[in-house]
Write a structure and sequence with these properties.
By secondary structure, the protein is of the alpha/beta class. A hairpin with a 2-residue loop joins strand 5 and strand 6. The radius of gyration is 21 Å and the shape is globular.
Length: 293
């Protein structure tokens, strides 16, 4: 991971870094789930992509302030691959729960189902960073949109009004092309949701099979054995998107090909797709859509 992408000097700021109220409200929701469904079982918290540990810190503080939950958390599992962020999380969270109760994993699949704990999973601005595939429906079926080297033009002017004006002109080294009929993955992705069958010819959609697999595992994790609950918070809607893939650099939207490896890449989350994956193993309560003007 290059540098520190979170904060004023990075590429983006997340809600927990702005105000502790956000994390406290999430904590209250989790407490309500345990009080209603937990049957007084010990609590296990799992967070996907915990960043600097700020959200989990606020959640733990909330749990510790409520008499019924103060001594009920047995373990906190953090799905994090960055060694530097793991160190930051350890420093921040150890005073709240003790280092012996903190566990780190590279993948959610490494978090094993618990027979005696009530597992609650939090994913905040996690799925928007998971890789996507872009597929297009053609008369011959779905084809994948790939990145190719553009050997013709010297410059390319972007048309999106939201793109940072300082990056409207860039060396046209890359371009999007269709895979043709030699991409069986595109056909598989096109069949991965019944919602995609009736799309008109020419439609492009962003599909994340990795997100689907993670959501399916999440569903199993909170329904098997000890049971649990999950809360996913992200940018998106109950639909597939076709052109939400974008890059952020120093808090500005830039071309996705701008300084490869130095920008934060993101795409809107198709919550209906996640629901389809989770519902195979767990009950989905629905989505709450919050729009910001």
């Amino acid at each position: 991971m290059k540098g520190d992408p979170i904060g004023a000097k990075g590429d983006f700021v997340t809600s927990p870094e702005i105000s502790q109220i956000f994390g406290e409200l999430v904590g209250i929701w989790l407490v309500s789930q345990w009080l209603e469904y937990g049957n007084h079982r010990p609590i296990r918290l799992v967070e996907l992509g915990p960043g600097k540990g700020t959200l989990m810190d606020d959640i733990l503080r909330t749990f510790n302030s409520i008499a019924q939950t103060k001594e009920r958390i047995q373990a906190v599992h953090l799905v994090e691959t960055s060694a530097r962020l793991r160190d930051e999380q350890r420093t921040k969270l150890s005073p709240r729960i003790g280092a012996e109760s903190l566990y780190w994993h590279d993948r959610i699949e490494d978090v094993k189902p618990s027979t005696d704990q009530f597992t609650m999973v939090i994913a905040h601005e996690f799925f928007d960073a998971i890789p996507i595939h872009i597929i297009e429906k053609t008369a011959q079926g779905f084809q994948e949109v790939l990145v190719d080297i553009d050997r013709t033009a010297q410059t390319l002017t972007t048309t999106s009004a939201s793109v940072d004006s300082s990056n409207r002109h860039r060396p046209a080294n890359f371009r999007y092309v269709l895979s043709g009929n030699m991409a069986p993955l595109a056909r598989t992705l096109g069949q991965s949701s019944p919602r995609f069958a009736n799309l008109p010819i020419g439609s492009r959609i962003e599909v994340s099979p990795a997100s689907w697999a993670i959501a399916r595992t999440l569903g199993k994790l909170i329904t098997e054995n000890g049971g649990g609950a999950g809360l996913i918070m992200d940018y998106g809607d109950d639909k597939a998107f076709g052109s939400s893939f974008r890059a952020f650099h120093r808090h500005k939207v830039v071309d996705v090909f701008h300084q490869p490896g130095m920008c934060d890449l993101t795409a809107n989350v198709d919550f209906a797709y996640l629901r389809e994956a989770i519902s195979a193993g767990g009950e989905v309560a629905g989505s709450l859509l919050i729009r910001h003007s």
